[in-house]
Design goal:
By secondary structure, the protein is mainly α. The chain is built from 5 helices and no strands. The model has no long low-confidence stretch (mean pLDDT 93).
Length: 126
């Protein structure tokens, strides 16, 4: 595994821990944002192994679908989860209302945990 991919997976794990802490502290909207970033960093790690890097979230989203989900290298549900999590992160970060409740944030954290684990399995041992 490339050093960059390893670092991104470490960052994904840190984002997951941060999401759990934020949820426990009563901030589900911000917890959702960290859960999204856990998925995002894991997606970047998988794409980095394929020598693909992007400057925008939309580039990562599209490439994950094209290069990993569509050919079946990773379950297509992970692509859906990444896109849905991005939408919830936008709500959590930019909405004036608390649009992401505790249940939604908890579900996102569980999905992020599964997403990161799947990418780690896909990339194999160090």
């Amino acid at each position: 595994m490339k050093p960059e991919s390893k670092k991104l997976l470490v960052k994904a794990d840190r984002a997951l821990r941060a999401a759990e802490l934020l949820l426990r502290d009563g901030a589900p909207d911000f917890a959702a944002g960290r859960a999204y970033y856990a998925m995002f960093y894991a997606a970047e790690a998988a794409l980095t192994e394929k020598n693909l890097q992007f400057r925008k979230h939309s580039g990562v989203h599209a490439a994950f679908g094209e290069h990993l989900a569509k050919p079946g290298l990773l379950d297509p549900k992970f692509h859906r989860w990444l896109l849905n999590a991005f939408d919830k992160r936008i709500l959590g970060d930019y909405s004036y209302e608390m649009d992401v409740d505790e249940g939604a944030a908890r579900e996102m954290i569980e999905q992020a945990r599964e997403f990161v684990a799947a990418v780690e399995t896909f990339l194999g041992p160090d």
